[in-house]
Structure formats: structure tokens, C-alpha cells
Prior knowledge:
The protein has about 325 residues and is mainly alpha-helical. About 45% of the residues lie in helices and about 5% in strands. It has helices at about 1-5, 15-30, 35, 45-50, 60-80, 110-115, 130-140, 145-150, 185-190, 190-200, 210-225, 240-250, 260-270, 275-285, 300-310; strands at about 155-160, 165-170, 180. The protein has a 3-stranded antiparallel sheet with strand order 1-2-3. Strand 1 and strand 2 form a beta hairpin. Helix 7 (about 130-140) runs parallel beside helix 13 (about 260-270). The model is unreliable at about 290-295 (pLDDT under 50).
Amino acid sequence: xxxxFLEEDRQVCRITKQDIHAFKRALSETPANYVKRFxxxxxxxxxxxxxxxxxxxxxxxxxxxxxxxxxxxxxxLNWCVRSEIIPDxxxxxxxxxxxxxSERPRVNFSPDDLIRLFNPKHFNTSTPFxxxxxxxxxxxxxxxxxxxxxxxxLNSIRTERGVxxxxxxxxxxNAGSQRLIPAHSTILAHGLEKRVASLRNSGKSHLxxxxxxxxxxxxxxxxxxxxxxxxxxxxxxxPRRFINTYLPKVGIVDSRKRWHSFRHTFKTxxxxxxxxxxxxxxxxxxxxxxxxxxxxxxxxxxAMKDAIEKxxxxxFAL
Length: 318
């Protein structure tokens, strides 16, 4: 993308701070998913094409620009500094400071939202759950990210010291994201173990087999274009259907409420239950920059199980 913006192959030693600032400004005008929306165009052309539309597509979010594109460009140039290719990093300190007014932070689901989401009219507990229903209830009571849910292997649902846990161990956001999450009693009561056994018997490998396979195909397609982004292909399926179809059907129209709101609700529930911050971090997989990041947390599996059982959601219809 940076090369497309420069419109030339430039030697690293010729990249200036002004180039990075100009790239940052261009990213602020770049339509989200521009490769799909304007196939075959370069970044500058996509920006022009988007401006020419009667109604422009939404542009990249501040967070995406800073944490994805500028951060990765900074990392590449940092490697050049360490390898003594260039004397200093021209991308240092450059980021989008102001949050766009159009951006609204994602929030947790309210008790009324939970009543709507799990209303028997739309969420029938008398029949086996489908993939999206299982994903909804597990997301609410585990706080897993969409990419973590989609990649959950059946072999990663196992017993640790007598406690059934989800072991988040596939490609994750960061090292601290790898963790164990005890299965909440509500999930168990609705037949998690029976579902896992059924999937095993039918030769499946993942808890959400269809979602996983869709994500893998999306990744292959992205790889063919040279634009693979870690785990960004998985949230395109069940979460997108949930946002575009299910939320409007149950009457939730707040644009701040998305699939990720399950994770916010989980984290808020732990906090309101009095679970210590360190335990919240262990269960949520917040980044830990220490050498012990990963499964080696300060909490025992038994203590994590006790903490997660403190989750109680007002309005929860199941």
C-alpha cells in the first residue's frame, strides 16, 4: 500500500518523514475494503474513485490506520534501523491523533438487549442450537474474539485439573491471547459436551466447522492477492450475518453494538462481579509483555473457574 501511495519503488534510505505523514493523510481518506470495492485499482486511485461516488464508502478507522498500517510500516523500518540500513526510523511518532466524529465506540449489551437476543421466539432452546446460536452463547460466557471462536479445535476443548476448558491456542492477536477459559455452567447446561462428542463422531475437527472452513477459503483468496491479514477473514461470516440480519430482526439498531459487544459484556460482567483485574486479564487474554505471557498465568484453573461462575447477566432469558 505504501508503494502504491508513493507510485514508485523507492530506496528505503530515500523515505522521509514527510512521506510517512503524507501516507497517513492518504490512509485517512482510504475507503475500507478498497481492494474489494475498487478491484484492480491502486490506493490513490481508490481514494479518487471513492470521492467521485455520490455516496462515499466509509473510510478506514483511526484504530486501523494506527494499529495496523502505520504500526507495521514502523516495524519494517525499525528492522532496517537495527540492520543498519538506515540511521533512524522516519515513521517514529507518526499516527492519527484525532478520533473521527463518525466513529462510535463499541459497547456492551444491556439487560434489555440480552432479552431480545435470547428471546425464545428467535433463540429456540427446544431444538439443537445452530452454529450462530452456539457462537453467541459461548461468546457471551467466554469473552473469546471472533477469530478465536472460528479457529477453536475440538481437541482444544479438554479437561484441565478436572475443569472443562477452552484452550485458545491457534493464531491469536498476541502471545498473551493464548489462554485457558473454563466453560461456564450455562454453556455446559445447554449441552456443550454432547455437541463436541457429536462433532467428533461425524469426523469434524473444529467447534464451528462451517465458519472455520469459510475463513480458510477467505484466507486462501486473500493469499492469492498477496493481502493476507492475520485472522481478519474469520469475522466476515457469522459476525457479519449477526450484525446485518440478526440484530435488526430482534430490534437492536444501535450501531455501537456489534459481535464484539459480547466480549465487552463478558468483561463488564466480570468487573461488576468483583473479579480482580489480574483475573479479568487472564480470562480475556489481554496482552502481557512479560516472558511468561501465554498459558503461564498467576491464576489456577480452579480459581479461574470460580471467577467465571460469578458471571450473572440480568435479563438473560436462557
